[in-house]
Specification:
alpha/beta, 4-stranded parallel β-sheet
């Protein structure tokens, strides 16, 4: 087995097993619902932030709390709580960045008694001073809740250390993203997703060490010639094993993405060396562009996707639309128009964590691969 295979094997982790590992090791674990939770604050208090974005499978117990037409990651996340699979968490951070997530926060408080909901009521007008002030206050409120759970007071120096660590991790993932685009035979869509998804389930220092070693291995390899088509993906989630298998079957390689769960975690860095690291974290939210879950009056998401297509010479864009995600559905007509104006081929594929039949997606992606 090659060094790259060994490193990738280390990143093949199960979130529930990871929770057990950290708890048994004496660490408290805080769940982080999607998206943009200030993990650095959790880390600065000596706890482990664990990103939980639902799970593949049928929606079950959460049907008692939500209508059927809710985005599956929210339904499946509540399912995991109701099924007791998250009982070892010491809290669940839920950011109010969509109507669905706001509903989740209230239903979580009602339904899950032993894992407290830590709600962040983000101000969406995030770029003006009032919005930045408000979001900083939301983080200060969150800190008080986290301190109570940790049984310790947060130190500004520890927050700064966490920011530096997380920025180094973001830089490593940025580098991996570039290297993966030049080694498309070695880093398949499924393996690319594994590297990015596993970041939510591991101590960032541990994940950084593995990704750093992986990057060194890739840098020492010659650039690979890929006998297929290159695409940029966009959406909320792109970690469905079956969908990724379809990409590989039809020789569709992912050279970059505008996915909240992937590049959404590393495209932007937090300001370092400031007098107020908590405010720096609040400013990070104001710096992010092109996210479907953040107020974007200039509608920059389409331009960002187009720039990524041009940068990598991609053949097209695959829009992975999470079913019943209003935010993502609202963006699609705008982005479709912009891609058409630029002459960029694209296709919409609806994804759902409850999916059991992938024939429609398979046919669509096969046709798209033939067309481009």
């Amino acid at each position: 087995m090659s060094n790259i295979e060994l490193l990738l094997e280390k990143l093949d982790v199960c979130p529930f097993e990871q929770i057990d590992k950290y708890v048994e090791g004496g660490k408290k674990v805080i769940g982080c619902a999607p998206v943009y939770t200030p993990e650095e604050l959790v880390y600065a208090l000596g706890m482990i932030p664990m990103g939980i974005w639902g799970a593949e499978g049928e929606v079950t117990l959460s049907k008692e709390y939500f209508p059927a037409f809710y985005a599956a990651p929210i339904l499946r996340l509540l399912d995991l709580g109701l099924e007791g699979k998250l009982d070892k968490l010491s809290g669940m951070i839920i950011p109010g960045l969509s109507d669905g997530l706001k509903g989740l926060s209230q239903n979580w408080k009602k339904a899950i008694k032993n894992v407290p909901a830590l709600y962040i009521g983000y101000g969406q007008n995030r770029k003006i001073k009032a919005g930045l002030d408000y979001n900083e206050k939301q983080y200060i409120k969150l800190i008080a809740q986290l301190e109570e759970i940790a049984g310790a007071k947060i130190e500004s120096s520890k927050v700064e250390e966490a920011i530096v660590l997380y920025n180094n991790h973001r830089k490593a993932l940025q580098e991996f993203n570039e290297l993966a685009s030049k080694h498309l035979n070695t880093i398949t869509p499924a393996l690319r997703s594994r590297v990015m998804s596993s970041a939510f389930f591991m101590d960032k220092a541990e994940h950084l060490e593995i990704v750093g070693a992986l990057n060194e291995e890739l840098k020492n390899m010659p650039e690979e010639k890929f006998d297929g088509k290159k695409v940029v993906t966009t959406g909320l989630l792109a970690n469905s094993p079956e969908i990724l298998k379809i990409f590989e079957t039809h020789k569709l390689a992912i050279v970059d993405d505008n996915i909240n769960q992937e590049s959404g975690q590393f495209d932007y860095l937090v300001d370092e060396g400031t007098d107020n690291p908590v405010r720096a974290l609040a400013k990070w939210i104001s710096d992010i562009e092109g996210s479907t879950l953040l107020y974007d009056p200039e509608k920059l998401r389409g331009k960002i996707i187009i720039d990524k297509v041009r940068k990598h010479g991609a053949d097209g864009v695959v829009y992975l639309l999470t079913k019943f995600s209003d935010s993502d559905e609202f963006d699609y007509p705008i982005i479709r128009k912009e891609l058409n104006q630029e002459g960029i081929m694209h296709i919409l594929v609806e994804v759902d964590q409850q999916m059991t039949n992938f024939e429609q997606a398979n046919t669509a992606l096969q046709t798209f691969a033939d067309m481009i």
